[in-house]
Amino acid sequence: MRHGPAHTVTIVSLSILLGGQSALLHAQATFNMDLLEKNDHLPAVDLQRFNQQAGQPPGAYPVSWQVNGVTLDARKTVTFRQNDRGQLTPCLKPEDLLQAGVNPAVLSQAPGATSRSCPELNALLPGSTVNFDFAHQRLVMTIPQALMTHRARDNVPSALWDEGISAFQSNYRYSGASQRTREGSTERDNYLMLKSGVNVGAWRLRASNSLTANSDDKPQWTTSGAWLERDLTRWQSELTLGDTFTSGDVFDAVQFQGISLASSDAMLPDSQKGFAPTIRGIARTNAQVTVRQNGYVLYQTYVTPGAFVIDDLYPTASSGNLEVAVKESDGEIRRFTQPYASVTSMQREGSLKYNLVAGRYHSDDASQRPLMMQLSLMRGFAHNLTLFGGLQSAAQYHNLSLGAGQGLGEAGALSLQLLNARDRHQQDPIDGRAWQLQYSKGFDRLGTQLTALFASALCHAERGVFQPG
């Protein structure tokens, strides 16, 4: 009984002593060099900086990448430097940012992207954040969606496209009639149409033929067209040699025999065909963006903090109001309405359509088949602006066209096309001019679309020279 109290006091005193030592060790992290060296009284190494977040020394570290919540497969060695706040910041090369998914067009315009001064990520890509998790050797970056390479909906990478097998194909249509006259004779009429083709690798040979036979005349074999074509995947274009038509985007389509290089809408995903407005906004946090029209959901996606762009809406009506709702991660919902309207000549922002042809004009009159060349371009820009133009040229005829289409929001859409031609078939050259103005506006409440077309031509327009597309 006499030893009980003394024993109890000793345990309490020991506990207090150990607690005090733990607090002291936590406050000042040091390493005793005497444990590694035989020399006594070496100065202790201060480990306090390693207790601070990102307090490690600058240098090269092998890290894993996480961009906008997605972990990249590759592991890279990244050089880090200390910024003005004493934190480690990565020195990212342009190829590193491209691998992270940054839009090349955005990166080419970023100040200091190609310099060796190692600017901070937020200076290169405004609104971006970066965090280096040293314990797990992980680099976590958040980049606004508007600065990233965006893949349109239902887009299939060209690397997965297939030219198909080599094969022969033929479609036909036959019609015939036989009738006996009162005199006892028999009259027969037969018509056969053939559309045949041969596929070899990337090349496709097509021909359209017809055979007409009746009781009175000899059978007639007619070839209405034959051409060789192939896709140019890299340019999303099509090369055609033989009998074909020009595009009717700027000028009226005409048939010719020669060579054509033209952009192909067939290579675009459905979400990039036709015209649709581009929606821009800003998200405060990781947010859900929903686009509605007339109460129906057209589009829904998730974006990172910062600016975002939606440019892959399916084409719907030529005008209307888009209701956009941005739901933040904290539950806040912000809404805005974007009205839009379009005319036939308008293109999506960033879209480019072109057609370059050279050959001989096709006419039923063999004496009226001059050599010709035609170029047409249509380009969509920001703020619902489209610029287009073209040139037609032959031995004694030249035609130049320039135009623009502009979406005016709630006020509708407007396009203007100007043409200037010179005809030298006569002894004296004849100049002519024409213009075409188109206006379109929708009235949602009435379910009505108003489209007005005004055109005027001077000089020899009655001869068919001026035919705006």
TrEMBL record:
Residues 30-175 form the PapC N-terminal domain. It comes from the Bacteria. It is found in: Cell outer membrane. Keywords: Cell outer membrane, Fimbrium biogenesis, Membrane, Signal, Transmembrane, Transport. It is a multi-pass membrane protein. Belongs to the fimbrial export usher family. This is Type 1 fimbriae anchoring protein FimD. It comes from Klebsiella pneumoniae. The gene is fimD_3.
